[in-house]
Design a protein that fits this description.
Layout lengths: L6 H17 L2 H8 L4 H15 L10 H14 L5 H12 L9 E4 L3 E6 L2 E12 L6 E6 L2 E5 L12 E5 L9 E11 L9 H40 L1 E2 L2 E2 L4 H29 L5 H27 L10 H13 L4 H16 L1
Parallel strand pairs: 1-4
Antiparallel strand pairs: 2-3, 3-7, 4-5, 6-7, 8-9
Length: about 350
């Protein structure tokens, strides 16, 4: 298992970084955050990803290439549904995934009961990434996984399902509360899998989702470090750049080390997913835990490097900080995943 990018992957990284830098500049993110043509700008950006073929990276074998894209989108504070579609919906939908449609995943809170007219979905999931603008939703229930197509999702005429965007501190991130009120779906909407196969699918999908969030947080933290270094080189106190002060150098070094550790674990998680390695469960937990700890340190040191300027709306630092913090809060924080790692370790000692 190679732990460094090969030539093709390095070229892919450069290509994605260049494209994201041009298509998703900080000015676009700020414009969406300030609600200046927000839906149209985000849709145009999403369409550019479709045209570039980035949504074709749905196969788990492409996990490393997907991680490369997600890191760059995390660095840019991407306002599109790419993260939810490729790392959460696509792994659950499998062959039903349509690369031209945005998707979302509901992991819990919904039950499915059989009736004469078909299946009935009922329940509420409170924190669904991009649930308010998804064209497809994959719903995990005790009875299996259901894939609901675009004719039902987000339609005011569709009885039984409502989605409402929640207010979160990341102004360009869409997190929704999705409610199923006795929504009737047909048997073909349920993935035709044996219970054991369905359970394995959900587990692997969760690993991909955790990896996606972790590498997105790494990209956001890298953006914080880049901005902090740029500020430390240009901001002067006592006639010299503040970057010459040892206290600032120590903070920058700590941020760099934390980011590199989280990045290494995130890409290791992607490698285990691509290789269908049984270590992918623990690798995904390690990646999410490390990324969570990384964002905490980077959040603190990044703000301290900027001082009071870091708290102003005019500073682009806020967008990367908020994206990193949001990733920590979704699908379990660092403490939860560290506990899972500890349980795995204890189990091997028995």
């Amino acid at each position: 298992m190679l732990l460094e990018f090969d030539a093709d992957q390095r070229l892919w990284q450069e290509t994605v970084r260049d494209a994201v830098g041009k298509q998703c500049p900080a000015s676009l993110v700020r414009g969406i955050a300030e609600n200046k043509g927000a839906p149209e700008a985000a849709h145009a950006l999403w369409q550019s990803y479709l045209d570039a073929g980035w949504t074709e990276l749905a196969d788990p074998e492409n996990a490393v290439e997907l991680a490369i894209v997600l890191e760059e989108l995390g660095r840019a504070t991407d306002p599109t549904p790419f993260l939810a579609t490729l790392s959460q919906f696509a792994p659950l939908a499998g062959k039903r995934f349509d690369p031209s449609k945005a998707g979302a995943a509901v992991y819990d809170g919904v039950s499915a009961n059989w009736s004469r007219q078909g299946w009935v979905l009922e329940g509420t999931s409170k924190f669904v990434l991009d649930g308010d603008r998804a064209e497809q939703i994959a719903v995990v229930t005790p009875a299996g996984v259901f894939v609901i197509d675009g004719g039902v999702v987000n339609s005011t005429e569709a009885p039984g399902i409502t989605s409402r965007r929640r207010d979160v501190f990341d102004p360009v991130l869409h997190v929704a509360e999705v409610t199923f009120d006795r929504l009737r779906v047909e048997e073909p909407d349920r993935l035709d899998l044996e219970p054991s196969a369905a359970s394995a699918l959900v587990e692997r999908s969760r690993h991909i989702a955790l990896m996606g969030l972790a590498i997105t947080m790494v990209g956001a933290c890298q953006r914080v470090l880049d901005l902090a270094l740029e500020h430390a080189k240009s901001r002067q106190q006592f006639g010299v750049p503040i970057g010459s002060f040892q206290a600032i150098q120590h903070k920058a070094t700590d941020m760099y080390v934390a980011i590199e550790r989280a990045r290494a674990l995130s890409y290791f998680s992607a490698l285990t997913i691509a290789a269908d390695d049984p270590r992918r469960r623990i690798a995904a937990a390690m990646a999410k835990a490390s990324a969570g700890e990384c964002q905490s340190l980077v959040f603190q040191h990044g703000l301290q490097t900027f001082g009071a300027m870091g708290f102003t709306w005019e500073n682009d630092l806020q967008f990367a900080l908020k994206r990193a913090k949001a990733g920590e809060l979704l699908l379990g924080g660092a403490a939860e995943h560290r506990a899972l790692i500890a349980e795995e370790f204890d189990a091997t000692r028995i």
